[in-house]
Every structure is written in C-alpha cells, then in structure tokens.
Amino acid sequence: MKKGFSLIETILYVGVFGILVVVISQLAVGTITNYKDSKAKDGLVSSANEIFGFFLKETKNSDSIYLERSVFDSSSGFLSLISPFQFGDEVGSSGYGDLYVSEGKVWLKRGGETAMALTSDDVEVTRFEFARSVPKQGLEGVRFYLAIRDKTDPEKTISLSTFTMLRGGYKQ
After folding, report:
1. What's the pLDDT tens digit per position in 76-114?
2. What element of type H or E holds 45?
3. What contacts 46, CB < 8 A, 6 or more positions away?
C-alpha cells in the first residue's frame, strides 16, 4: 500500500491554503487601512481642538479687536485682539494676541513672544476665516470658520465654526 497524497488531495490542500492566505491578507489590509483612517481623523480632530481652544481662550480674555490689523471675510484671515493682560516688559500695559494662518499652519503670536504653531505638520489649513459681529453698541463678537485637511490623504477634511463674545463686550 502506497502512502502519500494524490494529485486531487494536493490541489485541494493548495486551494484551501490559497483561500486562507487571501482571507488573512484582506483582514490585514483592512485593519491597516482602518488604522490609517483613524489616525488621520484623530490628527484632524486634535488640530481643530487645539485651534478652537486657543481661539476661545484668546477671544474670551480680550477687550476688543484691533481692527487695523485684523482681516475679516477671507479664507486666510488674521485676528488681532487687544488684551488687558500684560505682555512683554511694560507693567500695566495692554497686550495683543494674533491668530493667523501662514503656509497652511495656524499660528498664535502674543506681544513680546515668539509665534507658536498650533497645527501639526500632518495637516493643512484650507479655510481660516473670521467675521466680526457687533449686535449692539458696546458688544463685540467673532464668528470663526475653520477647514483643515490631512496632507497625506486630502480626501480627509474637517470643517467647523464657532462664535464667541469678547470679554470686553460684557462690560456695561
């Protein structure tokens, strides 16, 4: 009696093995794709959160908008805020804080300090727009629009907007 595999058994084993390899590779590719998508979305949300956090903090702590320096209704806006808090070396002086976009990154610059990038190198800001709102005399607010995309996968984008009143607008 001969021991071993027949041709049909060999073909059957190779076929089953091939199907297993295809299924396992599809699972691996799917897992890697989901990881990359998740990482890209997390990067976008993290950058947007960082930008919104600084925007809200800076505007809520400001007395007014420095209109001569600010750029409204432009996709590459510039917001300059006047704050009662001390910046630089002058004691008791007001300071300013600028939020702007340059080369696809959002920057924060306070008087007397070096500009700080608020976005990572993995994302690109495509819309950074401000709209000034003066609902009544003595009140001042800012609507902020933001759109960012992932540099490695430009199809992944996030667009958000918010509104806040300046601290100085609450004084009566």
Report:
1. 899 999 887 645 445 445 688 899 999 999 999 988 789
2. helix 7-60
3. 120
| Cβ atoms of 59 and 72 closer than 8 Å | no
What is the per-residue pLDDT across 33-83, written as a single tens digit (0 to 9) for each?
Answer: 899 888 888 889 988 999 999 998 888 888 888 899 999 999 889 999 988
DSSP 4: S
* CA 101 vs CA 82, 86, 106, 129, 150: distances in Å: 19, 24, 4, 10, 16
Listed in sequence order, the residues at least 6 apart from 146 whose beta carbon sits closer than 8 Å to its beta carbon are 48, 51, 52, 125, 127, 128, 129, 159, 160, 161
Helix (H) or strand (E) holding 123: strand 123-133
> What are the helix (H) ranges across 71-168?
none
